[in-house]
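Weekly puzzle thread! Below is a chain. First person to post its structure in token form gets bragging rights.
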Amino acid sequence: MRFWHAIKDYVFIILIVVLIRTYIVTPAIVDGGSMDTTLADGQVVFINKIAYKFDDVERFDIVVLKEKDTNEKIIKRIIGLPNETIEYKSNILYINGNAIAPVGIEFKETEDFTAKTGENEYFVLGDNRPLSKDSRMLGNFKQEDFVGRVTFRLWPLNKLGTIN
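Winning reply:
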């Protein structure tokens, strides 16, 4: 009994940390250059796993998804919401025929394409379009494929803070 009394606080702390990391927020390391210049290879970000239990998915959110075939986790930006036609012409984004200009976000050159989303489907792209393996190759994703929303960069320290 004396032993338990000595370690119970540590057990409690470990349990809380494991629960938070499993169900609420977890760190991840960016692997690859598909999100340059927003996120660079090797940077550490936090994945908010409960964000979409309280908030709606919004265009231009950065999310971590499970790739359908490999179950690999990938980081991409949501471009198309459910039941939309997504089109890039001359590096301009059109949603259902209307030009959309993202504010404060830099994308690499995007080749022309057209795509559609269905019910509960999302179209995602990497910010570094020439290097990105995304919905153009992988198809649309469903919300259940989302691991969580990326909102905070932890490393490197000179870029510590929220992510647009």
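Puzzle host: Confirmed. Bonus trivia for everyone else. The mean pLDDT is 86.
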